[in-house]
């Protein structure tokens, strides 16, 4: 479940740290969160899609590592990001 270009660009613009930022940890977490939510919706209707389930678990692990990195560097940025994305932190 990939994101289309317009949706991806919108997420990048809302979560970027500076004007040319496309790959900071905040942007990566936002993109992963959107992909995770799309894939979760897909898996609710396709319960036997085990390959996608494995990909989902890998994405969740990567997002968790990125969030712990952000929390380690700056707790305030972590709390703002979790609140903005709407996930349990």
What does this structure look like?
By secondary structure, the protein is mainly alpha-helical. 75% of the residues lie in helices and 0% in strands. The protein has one domain (5-85): Helix Hairpins (Orthogonal Bundle). The chain is built from 4 helices and no strands. The protein is globular, with a radius of gyration of 14 Å.
Condensed summary:
The protein is mainly α and 89 residues long. The protein has helices spanning 5-15, 25-45, 50-73, 75-85.
Which outline best applies? globular
Question: What is Rg?
Answer: 14 Å
- Total of DSSP H or I helical runs spanning 4+ residues: 4
Question: Biggest sheet, open or closed, and with what strands and sense?
Answer: none
Percent strand: under 5%
List the uncertain runs.
none
User: How many discrete structural domains?
Assistant: 1
Q: What is the name of the CATH topology?
A: Helix Hairpins
In the CATH hierarchy, what is the superfamily? S15/NS1, RNA-binding
Mean pLDDT: 92
Helix and strand pattern? HHHH
Number of strands: 0
User: How far apart, in Å, are the first and last alpha carbons?
Assistant: 24 Å
Helical percent range?
over 70%
Structural class: mainly alpha
CATH A-level architecture:
Orthogonal Bundle
**CATH class membership:** Mainly Alpha
